[in-house]
Amino acid sequence: MLKTKRICLWSGPRNISTALMYSFAQRQDTTVFDEPLYAHYLANTDASEYHPGADEVLASQENDGQKVVDEIFLGDYDTPIVFIKNMTHHLVNLDWSFMEETTNIILTRPPKDMLPSYAKQVKNPTMQDVGYEKHLEVAKYLKAVGKKPLIVDAKDILQYPQSRLRELCGTLGIPFDEGMLKWPAGPRKEDGVWAKYWYHNVHRSTGFRAYKSKNDPFPEELEDLLERSQEAYDKLMKMAGD
Predict the structure, then answer these.
(1) Domain around 63
(2) How far apart are CA 45 and CA 92, in angstroms?
(3) CATH code of the domain containing 32
(4) Per-residue pLDDT reduced to its tens digit, 68-86
(5) Element (H or E) spanning 5, and its range?
(6) Taking a C-beta distance cutoff of 8 angstroms, is the pair 211, 159 a contact?
(7) Max CA distance (Å), the chain
(8) The dihedral of CA 218, 223, 226, 227: what is its sign?
């Protein structure tokens, strides 16, 4: 039995996952990691052809996902908690059974809010990039092996950060820490080398920013992806309520 509480956040992009990592990094009892499977994902898909800074990512991390699992997800730690921020779609060409040894959170966000934001970074995104169907696949897998994940909507955290974080910590079986609500502006030492491409907003923040609904016209070229993403998102949120 592994003594360390291993919390895996399985998110999609542009879902406040970095802010949540920064939140957990304020805890003295927690070690955090930033997307340790990113290089593995790039090495096993064509995403390396269009992700900003892909060569830097591949050079900065272990490219063999199984080695990452053994060393980071299942390794030994001096702190009682380890929080590992991940993108769900990074789970390619891997044995998922290690997730039976971790506490798993799936972080999602309404696709109508997320897709236009992501498309500013990666042109013409696909389902492989945004991960909504992968969220659902992972949730079904975890439920099937008796490790039903916590399903969290980023919108809820932004609207009610203190109460939702308190609830989350209670469900995780760890004490809530008021320090999780604030952090210093700027980068963290745990940031991946991709931070300069993706983390501009969180580096300017000192806490969870209030939720604001999107009023801009939705990009027509993303309509088909929105339809598929919304279908997967709705099924995932139904699982959260079951």
Answers:
(1) 5-241
(2) 8
(3) 3.40.50.300
(4) 999 999 999 999 999 999 9
(5) strand 5-11
(6) yes
(7) 51
(8) positive
Closest by Cα among 155, 147, 192 to 18: 192
Tell whether pTM > 0.85: yes
Count structural domains, the chain.
Answer: 1
Structure tokens at 88: 């769900």
Cα–chain center distance at 116: 18
Which CA distances in Å does 64 have to 99, 121, 228? 17, 26, 31
Task: Look up residue 82 and give its DSSP letter.
Answer: E
Q: How far is CA 227 from CA 78, 160, 161, 220, in A?
A: 45, 28, 29, 12
Q: One-letter amino acid identity for 114? A: M
The full DSSP string for 59-104 is HHS-S-HHHHIIIIISS--SSSEEEEEEEGGG--SS-GGGGGGSEE
CA distance 13 to 18: 9
